[in-house]
Prior knowledge:
By secondary structure, the protein is an alpha/beta fold. The protein is globular, with a radius of gyration of 21 Å. The protein starts with a helix and ends in a 6-residue tail after the last helix. Helices cover 48% and strands 15% of the residues. The relative contact order is 0.14. The protein has helices spanning 2-13, 16-30, 32-52, 55-58, 69-81, 111-122, 139-145, 156-173, 197-204, 250-272; strands at residues 84-89, 100-104, 125-130, 149-151, 176-179, 208-214, 220-221, 226-227, 230-236. Helix 2 (16-30) packs across helix 3, helix 3 (32-52) packs across helix 7 and helix 5 crosses helix 6. It contains 10 helices and 9 strands.
Amino acid sequence: xxxxxxxxxxxxxxxxxxxxxxxxxxxxxxxxxxxxxxxxxxxxxxxxxxxxxxxxxxxxxxxxxxxxxxxxxxxxxxxxxxxxxxxxxxxxxxxxxxxxxxxxxxxxxxxxxxxxxxxxxxxxxxxxxxxxxxxxxxxxxxxxxxxxxxxxxxxxxxxxxxxxxxxxxxxxxxxxxxxxxxxxxxxxxxxxxxxxxxxxxxxxxxxxxxxxxxxxxxxxxxxxxxxxxxxxxxxxxxxxxxxxxxxxxxxxxxxxxxxxxxxxxxxxxxxxxxxxxx
Length: 278
């Protein structure tokens, strides 16, 4: 027994990684603020690495959304180990043969893991993000190779040109563009007013709109710097057809989507609270 203890001690003292890991656990137990930053940093680091390391493999079929499937599974398993699990509801509303626009409420940088989880269900969904992410090399290269669409939000004309090209891909490749219609992330109880760009894309391509509502990350308290454990409830709502609709119908579409997503947002938030452990 003494020999085993000495061996374990030698291994521990000889490994900086094990020492750092043990110190991190101790600090997390004693200092919640450290756990908050450590968890966020770990999740973002792993989410980046799973797209960076396989870049040579992505080159065999660049811009293919399913390049991100295995990396996404790894990221989801890691975040589950960190105490966050996803519950996907409304799978019966998914039609992989329909291209369109998927509207998702935006809360945090860790939404990147949520998008990876949705890929396992949709198989044909690609995020639309700000172009600055592309220049975060080499993560941006990995993102590009898995089909992520980059737009310049400061240049309206450029953004419109990109979205027009993607509108063609919606029909040609049955792609679903995952768009955050609020335009920016937040942790409020009320969704921010939706921007109209995603609705123009859907109407221009006469494609469906699929609202996807994600419960608040109630296990994260950014003000108090706390990151606990919890469940993210993701509700996939029925498709909304834009067939026969034109520019004059966009305001009505925006209002309708905002209303049904807010209603569902309130419901899943009330339920998610019971799974939160800070």
